[in-house]
Design a protein that fits this description.
The protein contains seven helices and twelve strands. 20% of the residues lie in helices and 17% in strands. The strands form four sheets. The chain has a four-stranded antiparallel β-sheet. The chain has a four-stranded mixed β-sheet with strand order 9-8-7-10, covered by helices on one side. A two-stranded antiparallel ribbon has the order 1-12. It has 246 residues and is an alpha+beta fold.
């Protein structure tokens, strides 16, 4: 019997796992440390994005719209996440970081976790687990709420997310974490996804139910250039697959 035929015959007698272990190389999936590998397909930021200036690396104000500033997205725990941002601006910031906005299906899978639950932590809403019962800041500065909702300047007032009991630092609500290790996917800030029509998911600190509960929360009422004090984002990235040679 030829040597090659002998090897084939021996391998046929081995369990599949043993055959795989003797393979000359295998692919290893790599995500950046600030991201989690979700559903075996995509890297997702663990925390809602904040911004830094490109070049200098200085922190960009989370209380101001980028408005064309040269910034890139970063994902860190314990910082104030970026609000006042449009889908278009979020897309540019992700791209500058070597990432991209999450596709809607990716975002939903990431939010629901490995067990596909209604909320990051389970199927039943738990008060206080996520930042979803905050203070309404518009009333603090604008007695005429109807006029405020119709005013872009009011809706983008930098003071709003600095009112105590509104926007929280990333990861502060420790129970708002799912099985992938992702924080704040429900509440805190709306999160833009990669939809050319304009869609954000997850709700924010005042509302996680009006347009669907928890991970099903979805708003498509605004175009991709819209931004206000409630709009934020996080980035996704295609994983790097490295050949590992023994």
């Amino acid at each position: 019997m030829r040597a090659s035929s002998l090897v084939t015959a021996v391998l046929a007698l081995l369990p599949l796992a043993a055959v795989l272990e003797t393979a000359p190389s295998e692919a290893r999936v790599a995500c950046p440390s600030e991201m989690a590998f979700v559903d075996g397909t995509v890297c997702v930021d663990k925390w809602e994005a904040s911004l830094v200036e490109r070049g200098s690396g200085r922190t960009f104000s989370p209380y101001a719209s980028p408005n064309g500033a040269r910034v890139k997205a970063v994902s860190k725990g314990g910082v104030v996440p970026q609000a006042y941002i449009s889908k278009n601006e979020a897309e540019v910031a992700c791209k500058a970081a070597g990432k991209r906005l999450c596709k809607e299906a990716e975002w939903v899978k990431a939010c629901q976790g490995k067990a596909a639950t209604a909320f990051p932590y389970g199927n039943e809403h738990q008060p206080g687990y996520c930042n979803d019962a905050g203070k309404a800041p518009l009333a603090t500065y604008y007695p005429d709420l109807e006029a405020a909702y119709a005013s872009s300047s009011a809706m983008n007032d930098a003071r709003l997310n600095q009112v105590p009991g509104t926007l929280a630092r990333t990861g502060r609500f420790r129970k708002c974490r799912n099985s992938y290790g992702l924080y704040d996917m429900v509440g805190n800030l709306h999160e833009w996804v990669d939809d050319p029509a304009g869609t954000f998911r997850g709700g924010y600190y005042l509302d996680t139910r009006q347009n669907g509960n928890g991970c099903k929360y979805r708003t498509d009422a605004h175009d991709v250039s819209y931004h206000d004090y409630s709009t934020g984002f996080r980035c996704c990235k295609d994983p790097r697959r490295e050949q590992r040679v023994p």
